[in-house]
Amino acid sequence: MYVTARSFWAPKAGNRSDEYEDAFWPPRRVNRSGGHFRFAVADGATETSFAALWAQRLVHAYGAGCFAGADWLEELRRQQAGWYAEVLQKPLPWYAEEKVRSGAYAALLGFELATAWTWQSIAVGDCCLFQWRGEERIAAFPAQAVSFFTSRPFLVPSNSAGNADLGQQIVRQQGEWRPGDRFALLSDALAQWVWRSLEAELLPWPMLEEIHQAGQQRLFRQWVDALRRRTDLRNDDVTALLITVQ
Amino acid sequence: MPYSAEISRANPSCFLFLIDQSGSMEDPFGGGEVSRKKADLVADAINRLLQNLVIKCAKEEGIRDYFHVGVIGYGDNVGPALSGALAGKQLVSISEIGNQPARIEQRMKKVEDGAGGLVEQPIRFPVWFDPMAHGATPMCQALTLAHDVLAAWLPQHPDSFPPIVINITDGEATDGNPAAAATALRDLQNNDGHVLLFNIHLSSKGGRPIEFPPVTDNLPDQYARQMFELSSLLTPTMRTIAQQEGYSATESSRGFVFNADMVSVIKFLDIGTRPSNLR
Q1: Contact B58/A99, CB-based, under 8 Å?
Q2: Residues with Cβ within 8 Å of residue A21, at least 6 apart in sequence
Q3: CA-CA distances (angstroms) from residue A182 to A2, A121, A214, B241?
Q4: In CA terms, which of A97, A144, B8, B186 is 20 to 30 Å from B146?
Q5: Which residues in chain B have Cβ-Cβ distances shorter than 8 Å to A148?
Q6: Quick check: B271 and A49 CB within 8 A?
């Protein structure tokens, strides 16, 4: 199995790059053969604090395989404790302290490719996976329509008090791949654009393929800016992790 | 579509709070907490509203200035009611509010323990206002001053989400019928819609809390019905979020609560993703 993968990202218009609260794994491009690959995209919730840190922790843990075992909940608790330890390293003003008490939240989408022509994915929230072959959509997960997207999704909490409901909110999907198949892991704004395109019977794939082929953040950001100017893309952090498998 | 402007630092919105500080606020509150005065409830209401507004805008690096905020008191006088370093200012940024409370108290708060129970934790509770009750209830003057403040703000923010005025009162104006002043205030607009006037009515007469009603049917007296009539409709987005939060909001629901608080309105504002499981 030979995989090429690269992540493209842009902060919400009006925000600085250091205010970008999505995260992706792996941090660098992939261009190699192998028997097993893990990818992830997370999206920290705007209304919570230290959300970028939480999103980073989630994709790193997923990428390292920490959530792969039956004790994933124990691993999540370790990540939650680590997040608290990190954010409480220095004294905080009253409002930041209150926000930390509520915790950070993030959507998480994990994706694994294996040599046996199979893939599997796990999601909490509204980051989305798409698989296509030529012009044909093969799989979409977890969103199945543009109506899936709201500004109030259920997300992974950094506060362990919220773990009780999490088990019911995790969704899983598996499928098969063929050489030449393409995958995209997208945070919600761009995933919503894909679904809006599909529902308008417009193919979103050529643009994603062009972005991947060119491999340039500059081109990606120009495209995102143009979509935002036309109000075709909600103003939010955007991330696209684009993968081709042979 | 009206009321769809993005609220951001580059395109902030505005909250203007009107606080009834009249002598009648010395009367006991009738909503089941008979030992408390209405003035105490008003102070709690405005402190909680400001606290929640600051928290909504807080990020790890500080407070993002998504809102300008003004507080107008009405009782003996009608005018800016912020204290300390912010005294006398009609509008300040939400970061100035958050960074300059009058004092910070230590209180206990019950929080979920992760095992289905609750534990008490000490929290820091900022206080901007103490209870005050003196003089008449010049609500018409307060609404007129709010009109003047926002008439100056709107041309500078033509594309912002329209200002929200929250009036906290026992509803018994002493300077005439407030309907005309309220209509003039609601008629102000920018490119994204009209000014929203919401009312919190705290009554001495008791009665169960009522939140965002679509009709006056269950309101106990003429004052409550009048405050309902003065209130704007919830916007479509607010209505949707209210429904997601469990309120039975309809197209006729107004920004009015009776013997209840209005912290939920802050949740109804969309400044980005808010998890459905965030409490």
Answers
A1: yes
A2: A43, A44, A45, A46, A51, A52, A55, A237
A3: 12, 15, 15, 36
A4: B8
A5: none
A6: no
Query: How many H helices and E strands in chain A?
Result: 7, 12
Which of A49, A94, A188, A239 is the best residue to mutate to test the B interface, defined by the most B CB atoms within 10 Å of its own CB? Answer: A94
CB contact under 8 A, A105 and B124: no
Query: DSSP letter string over B91-141?
Result: -EEHHHHHH--SEEEEEEEEEE-SSS-EEEEEEEEEE-------S---HHH
List chain B pLDDT tens, one digit each, 279 residues.
899 999 999 999 999 999 999 888 888 776 554 568 888 888 888 999 999 999 999 998 899 999 999 999 999 999 999 888 899 999 999 999 999 999 998 888 777 666 677 888 888 889 998 888 889 999 999 999 999 999 999 999 999 999 999 999 988 899 999 999 999 999 999 999 999 999 999 887 777 889 999 999 888 889 999 999 999 999 999 999 899 888 999 999 999 999 888 888 888 888 877 888 876
**Do the Cβ atoms of B58 and B266 come closer than 8 Å?**
no
Task: For strands A182-186 and A238-245, give the pairing.
Answer: antiparallel
- Residue B58 Cα, gap to closest chain A Cα (Å): 7
ipTM, interface predicted TM-score of the complex:
0.86
Give B24 to chain A, closest Cα distance, Å: 33
Considering only the beta carbons, identify the residue of A95, A151, A154 that sits closest to B55: A95
pTM, two decimals, is: 0.90
Q: Cβ separation of B273 and A162 shorter than 8 Å?
A: no
